[in-house]
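For reproducibility, we list the full input for the phosphoenolpyruvate complex.
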Amino acid sequence: MRRILVAGNWKMNLTVEKARSLAREVARRTREGAAAVDVAVFPPYPYLLAVAEALSGSPVRLGGQDLHWEAEGAFTGAVSGAMLREAGCRMVLVGHSERRHVFGETDVQTNKKVHAALNHGLDPILCVGEKLDEREAGRTEQVLARQLAAGLEVVGGRDMPRVTIAYEPVWAIGTGRTATPQTASEAHAFLRRQLAERFGSDTAEATRILYGGSVKPDNAASLVGQPDVDGLLVGGASLDAESFSAIVKGSSPPC
Ligand code: PEP
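The corresponding predicted structure, in tokenized form, follows.
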């Protein structure tokens, strides 16, 4: 049985004080509410230590938004997996569409980051997703298959329990245009079949696949209600404790 994960990507937003109070509020509401759902937040790097402190003793997990594949060295502006671990992270986003399409990150670099995460004790969330022109050209499955295979190159089945996949159609991120439950469901089922071909059906069945792209309190339940949707990666709506908690609540399995 795959546990639902709801993850909040705070991107390049907030101030340290706002991040701290958002983290406290998410922790408080998570303690009170949905123990059946895993919750994680991904603050900007300079706020990690403050957020780690605010989350201390709570079940909310902390993650980094990205990492460099090298452990240390002359990589100005970059942050290593070891640094994220030291700051209290246990998870990390890899290959987010903004990394791929704003910063030009390649599949090869994404794969190196997945390995760096695993080697530094961070559970990677590998993000994949097609752009609008790729969907309109009927190339969605081709893009997803390529990003998934490349991102997981030389990752063994033994490490797969630590890997989460996030399907994030680029046209749905930050646009208010959410994928319909059926569109999400088809993409997730496709990704799971790809995982089954590569790692076998047991591993594929056990791997969590999140949906991300304009998730809001009013569409969370219908998305998580799809058989292959195992949670949500939330951007904008994770910046407000009330809407994030409503998404967590809407994603919780009925008692
Ligand atoms: C994201 O940042 O991964 C994301 C899905 O953003 P939003 O929810 O704002 O579309």
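The chain has a mean pLDDT of 96. The first strand starts at residue 5 and ends at 9. Both points were considered when choosing residues for closer inspection.
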